[in-house]
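Input record (Table S2, row 729):
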Amino acid sequence: MDATMLPEVTAAGVIIKAVLILAVIAAIAGFGTYIERKILAFMQRRLGPQHVGPFGLLQLAADGIKLFTKEDIIPQHANKFIFAIAPVITAATAFIALAAVPVFPGFTVPFTDIYVPSIASDINVGILFVLGMMAAGLYGPLLAGMAQSNKWGIIGSARTAIQFLSYEVVTGLSILAPIMLVGSLSFVDFNTYQTDGVWLVVYQPVAFILFLIAGFAETNRTPFDLLEHEAEIISGYVTEYSGMRWGLFFIGEYANMITIGVIASVVFLGGYNDFWFIPGWIMIIAKIAFSFFFMLWVRASWPHIRPDQLMWLCWKVLMPLAVINILITGLVIMI
Amino acid sequence: MYEFIAFYVFAISTTILFLITVMSKNVLYAMTALAAGMVMISGLFFLLGAEFLGVVQLIVYVGAVMALYAFAMMFFDATKNIKEKHQNPTLVFLLGGLMALLFVLMFSAPIIGDNIQAIYPMIEGVGNAQAVGMVLFTKYLVPFEVAALMLLVAMIAGIILAGKKMDYSLTESESADEEMNIKKGDA
Amino acid sequence: MSLEQFKNRNVGTQNYVKLDLDHAPTDAWSQFKQVVKRTFQPELFVGLGVTLREMMNSLFRGKSHTTQYPFEKLPVSPRYRAIHDMLRLMESGNYRCIGCGLCEKICISDCISMETKYDENQRKEVSEYTINFGRCIFCGYCAEVCPELAIVHGGRYENASEQRASFSLFEDLLTPIDQLNLQQEYAGFGAISPNADENIKSTPLAY
Ligand code: SF4
Ligand code: SF4
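Output record (iron/sulfur cluster complex):
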């Protein structure tokens, strides 16, 4: 894809794109809960939701109605303002991160000449921006836990702080090696780099695995779901939340899963290039869907680990590996 | 026009947020306002076209430094109001005001004198990150490396300070079991 | 499920799979070795394979463990002690209860209340018989003590009802006369054991 060939991006196009992202990703995030429940159910030989609508598809609507009409409880001694905005921070940062990510291919709105770009805002430090936004996303759980004056909440937010801070290091370092190869921080350049059909995983398998592991940690998925692990800390930072505020945390989590899926597919798995005879937009959707499925698959299969094992894994295994990977990549580039 | 509005939005909200940080009696409010203010500052960077710095501001200050503050704050009850003790409010006010004035003078002097010049002007066709890199690895190489070394020293010192009993596991050590048994026996 | 299976409660004789857990590593080197072992062992992927296989099984081969409860029910053990049944005599269709009052006496929560009178044939007849299921603890003593195997425990375990009188009158507990052919002998508490005949010994007539 050559940038010069594309039509001019107007403000209207960007706004349409923003609305699209919000609508589609929020819907997918909601739909993701259904998929997750279904897939986990099948993997555990259950049936999953199946009574509301055909195959339980309308369970989503039922859950939505339930969340919206539930009583919104704010604990007596909580800091009400912070308590109220914390879920918004999670959801908002998750969606802002998607602003710099190529989610769907660009297209022109029928009957007008408004061009909707594939990235809402193509800043040339796209990857860093997404990582930064996901880093800022840690304030949702953090403030939520601290504002609710509940000891489980506090433990949850302490775990948030250590887990996100530690694994940001791994994410950053692991993605640095492909950045060195491509020589750019823009998603578009990553995509162009892989047009010849050789995916970056081939050059950077270690970085890919490290990024996946860190991605699991940053999206708070099993095996690293320490932030809200029921058996240990009730529900961590969401202990006191109910109704739609709780729902916002959920939407944020699923949006983050999609973001990680997009980064993994664009940076490591060949982006939205055509593959053989399959057009690019199907490829990218397939890749994102697979990474989403992979997260659910892992959740069904693997146990979760202790906080000390989490820290140990991060600082004693993953980070040195990432640094060595960067060193080797640098040496190979220099020679 | 957009930039004009955006600048004032960012500037005013930064000022208000930092004012809240200083004035608020509640730790949680102060912390949240400080973090939000940092985000607004990164917005200013984006306006200036310094995307790289803006993102670094986000990752480093918002993502890391503030989170560490927050981590320290978990040892207090964050929902309570704090009573500050001022021994000499006049002195604090005077010194603080003087500092602020000094900063304003320092930064406005070249603007008034109208002689700001970029020592390293942006090279055409070079991205933001590259420009920062070029300056860092040519003109400021020595300070950069020295800073890196200092951080390394600080890191090692931190590890040594914190890690004295790092490998001591309560669950696995036999003596800890015995100690607990003894305590149970006492009770 | 047959009764024999239910009766086999011998813990420890089944084929348990024993894990041979290693001891936790003590020094850094063995810790490292453990990590290397765990990293390059395909155990994690075996786990992924198992879940994928199960997904395929439940998706395409219909192997699902779910019992869709209100629509399908699992069989309960014949020894299960749920709401009582009053049985009838197979031959005459009359109820078995002879109004001896033993169950009323033995009930430890004092929830059986009955009244009897003589009918025209000078035979004892039960005129009132209720069990207060708000108090019954389903201990099974009544079924055990009954000399006629008249009161037994049935399989009705869904006890939600608008009023507890719903299933506590004599008529409700009694097998309906038109379903007499469906009445089954109770195998649980107080029932004659399957090998009762073998256990009968001739009375020693030494005196
Ligand atoms: S013990 Fe049996 S026979 Fe005697 S009163 Fe009770 S139910 Fe009737
Ligand atoms: S089951 Fe026990 S408590 Fe219930 S009626 Fe029989 S003897 Fe009484």
